[in-house]
Design goal:
heterodimer; A: alpha/beta; Rossmann fold; five-stranded parallel β-sheet; 5 helices; B: 239 residues; alpha+beta; Helix Hairpins; 2 domains; two-stranded antiparallel sheet; binds adenosine-5'-triphosphate; binds magnesium ion
């Protein structure tokens, strides 16, 4: 079965370009996007994803809350957190909540893609 | 205290700037990098796209410096050898200093205790001061570091126990006029065509976060001396 990846951000340019980077990567992933935490949970409930890449600061459910919810309801799902406003404290908080990686925006696309390849294979 | 208040609002402001600027930068950068892969490396379009990425990184670096000033990470202090830190920064700049015939000397008082400080923040301060000294001596000169322990001094009146470690960084550069002296620690004050004016404001902010402070003395035409004062912390009373 194809591995499933969900990209969550209210910034459409970013979700679209990340989406493209995985579509072009020749990996057999099923890639979806969501523009809010609510939409992400909605999509999760119909069919869970193996990996979620999420922004922190979004209107409505934040990426932190999404991370908590995913880790409690879908423990097998890995999460990569991105943020435009990072700090050591944020990084520690996110790691403590079980996120696999933490990246600061703007990031190196290849670095994030590598993280995804390592998790999804 | 008024200054601290202003800095707090600056911290909030920078969260807004981060969100409103770094998010579009992230979108542009990722788009550009995806696009870049679709051209062969020799293609001029690929070169143009890689320039876009480079310029994004440049803007982001400036933002990063500004955030360091506006909202530095909470210091993670530890006991460190002052000599190791200063030597490390010097090694980084040694080729540049040599090329310009800048003589470097470093006198560290015998038996100087370890300093209690956030190592990477302190490195950043020393680096900023060295770079400024370098800029001030386009035709060469002397860069000197001198440190000693003053066991009866205090950085601030409210400092718990007595004792100050002093680090004096002096150069024989162009010096700073009286009127400029009042502004050099202001964010974005610069006299250099390629300067941003954040080096000293970040440095004094970082030192403040580490309960330390910085003072300056300068004689135009002769040189400048920046004096850092760190509160002495007894190593066995650690953490
Ligand atoms: N050692 C020095 N000798 C002479 N002038 C100095 C020295 N250090 C600082 N200054 C003056 O203070 C100004 C502010 O210094 P600061 O480090 O904050 O910014 P900058 O060096 O101009 O730019 P940046 O550090 O952001 O690249 C400098 O532009 C320069 O005029
Ligand atoms: Mg400077």
């Amino acid at each position: 079965m194809a591995r499933r990846l969900l990209i969550v951000d209210d910034e459409e340019t970013l979700t679209f370009s990340l989406y493209q980077s995985f579509i072009l990567s020749k990996k057999d992933y099923e890639v979806a996007t969501a523009s809010s935490g609510e939409e992400a949970l909605d999509k999760m409930s119909s069919a869970p994803f193996d990996l979620i890449i999420t922004d922190i600061f979004m209107p409505g459910i934040s990426g932190i809350d999404l991370l908590k919810k995913v880790k409690s309801d879908y423990p097998a799902t890995e999460v990569i957190v991105m943020t435009a406003y990072g700090s050591d404290e944020k990084k520690d908080e996110v790691a403590g909540l079980g996120a696999k990686h933490y990246v600061e925006k703007p990031f190196e696309m290849k670095a994030v893609r590598e993280m995804v390849f390592n998790i999804l294979g | 205290m008024e200054r601290m208040d202003r800095l707090a609002t600056l911290g909030e402001l920078s969260a807004g700037i981060a969100h409103e600027i770094r998010n579009p930068l992230a979108g542009i950068k990722t788009s550009a990098q995806v696009l870049e892969e679709s051209f062969s490396p020799g293609d001029f379009r690929s070169q143009l796209v890689s320039r876009i990425v480079k310029e994004i990184d440049r803007s982001n670096k400036l933002l990063q410096r500004f955030f360091n000033f506006a909202k530095p990470n909470r210091p993670k202090p530890g006991f460190h050898s002052l000599k190791n830190i200063v030597d490390g920064v010097f090694l980084l700049l040694a080729p540049r200093l040599m090329k310009r015939k800048i003589e470097y000397s470093c006198e560290i008082e015998e038996g100087l205790p370890n300093i209690y400080i956030d190592e990477s923040q302190f490195e950043q301060v020393i680096l900023n001061l060295f770079l400024n000294a370098y800029d001030a001596m386009p035709d060469g000169g002397n860069l000197n570091v001198k440190t000693w322990y003053d066991k009866s001094g205090r950085v601030m009146a409210e400092q718990e126990s007595k004792g100050v470690v002093i680090i004096l960084i002096s150069d024989t550069g162009k010096g700073i006029s009286q009127e400029k002296l009042e502004r050099i620690f202001d964010p974005f004050y610069t006299s250099k065509s390629d300067g941003v004016g954040l080096g000293l404001s970040i440095s004094s902010r970082l030192l403040e976060e580490n309960q330390s402070k910085i003072e300056v003395n300068s004689v135009p035409g002769e040189g400048s001396a920046f004096k850092i004062m760190l509160p002495f912390v007894q190593e066995d009373r650690q953490e």
